[in-house]
Amino acid sequence: MATPGTKPPETSDEIDLGQLFKLIGKGFQKMFRGFLLIYLYFKRNFFWFAGLGVLGVLTGYLVNRLVEPLQKLDVIVTPNLDNRNYLYDVVAELQSNLKAKDTAFLRSQGIPVNSVEGFDLEITDLRTKSTNTPGDSELLELMKDFGNSPAIGDLVREALREKTTKDHRITFYFKDPIAGEAIAGKFMEYFNTNAYYSQLLETQRKNAQERIQRNDSLVKQIDQLINNYTEQMNREQGGTEGRLVLENQEPLNVPSLFELKNQLIRDTEAKRLELDMKQEAITIVSFGKPHKVIKPLALKNIVLFPLLFIGGFLVVSMVRYLNRKSMELIPNK
């Protein structure tokens, strides 16, 4: 029992620096010991690692010589009738037919079954590939910095074009560049075999042509009215400037006629451009050429095989070590 008047020992919240340094020293010793163990392991198995590395390099070199390199072809397409989902559905259908080697489908497209060995395709939305375009907040900051500069219009148009583009990239993979390019062409023709979209596009083109004819007729009528106005102005010098009074006494605003004519001309130009762009439901913007697929360094055969062989050796060593440790835990009978 504590005698009266005695005080319990006071506990100090201060850190004992000596103990802290001892703990740090023990930690460094353990790390150094682990480093030495790893060093000794690699030293004992140096010839294994060197042999497996050389064997992997030779294997990768032989595979490169024996296996035909993979080729790819990029096609840029634009869906014209808000048929983005149709584009993805056709790609999924082609992937399924290639995976199943559907002979009926391939023969209907005039493609030999044995020529699609190793053939594959994928689709990419080009909007997701644009990493250099500014975001909404960054765009507002840039507009604030430019003030009333004319460059704002170009900046906004470029940003909107990147965000609203309909372009997609369809990439075909194959081994034979000649046969692969031909098959890719047949598959691209298959995209535009949909009867519904073909009829819809035909109707749209017909409407555009009729719009162009009506615009041309209206432009001719406006030109005739302006010519009549000019002739009457030459005959009569006392009329009100810029206005023509017809027989029914209704005034004619000549400047508005010029503005209407310009609008009709711009609309005609847009419709003609639409006719050139929308000749098919899926427009092929660019049909590239076959070229070799460039793999990352870690996936190249001359690097991949040494890594696989050495990794396999490490896995076997780990399994042997775990087996040995597990046997030590089993009591001797």
Report the total helices: 10
The SS-based structural class is: alpha+beta
Order of helices and strands: HHEHHEHHEHHEEHEEH
Q: Tell me about the biggest sheet?
A: 5 strands, antiparallel
| Low-pLDDT segments, ≥5 res | 129-133
Cα distance spanning the termini: 53 Å
Oligomer state equals single chain
Shape: elongated
Number of E-type strands? 7
Mean pLDDT: 79
Radius of gyration: 38 Å
Helical fraction equals 55-70%
Structure characterization notes:
The protein has helices at residues 17-44, 46-66, 84-100, 103-108, 136-146, 151-164, 177-191, 195-235, 254-277, 301-329; strands spanning 71-79, 120-125, 168-174, 243-245, 251-253, 282-287, 291-292. By secondary structure, it is an alpha+beta fold. The protein contains 10 helices and 7 strands. The chain is 62% helix and 11% strand. The longest helix has 41 residues, at 195-235. α2 packs antiparallel against α10 (301-329), α5 packs antiparallel against α6 (151-164) and α8 (195-235) runs antiparallel to α9.
Describe how the helices and strands are arranged.
Layout lengths: L16 H28 L1 H21 L4 E9 L4 H17 L2 H6 L11 E6 L10 H11 L4 H14 L3 E7 L2 H15 L3 H41 L7 E3 L5 E3 H24 L4 E6 L3 E2 L8 H29 L4
Antiparallel strand pairs: 1-3, 1-6, 1-7, 2-3, 4-5
